[in-house]
Design brief:
Beta Polymerase, domain 2, cytoplasm, 117 residues, 6 strands, alpha+beta, six-stranded mixed sheet
Amino acid sequence: MSQPNLTADQILAFAVEALEDVKGDKITVLNVGNHTDMMDFMVICTGTSKRHVESLGQHVFEHLKQKGLQPLGSEGRGMSSDWVLVDLHDVVVHVMTEEARAFYDLEKLWDIKPEVL
């Protein structure tokens, strides 16, 4: 299935909506479109446990499928992981435990001022 006629902003809004639906914490959006051709936005969210991280990633994946977008893929789901990545074409969602988020510090790695929602 190819990507429907959703803009990056629409995909972003649906992804954030999905994270908020299942109580994602510290949802942060990085506009990385000027830094890479791979995506326009990166969303980073904290889950309260590995199980919550899994649930958040699964919900984002399923929510976007319901909106007509076939995600390109996902990593870390079903592995009791502290980090799940969901690739939504122009938006990549990272769901992490607090410890993983502090360790990898993606906001600092990209050196972009985050927009906290």
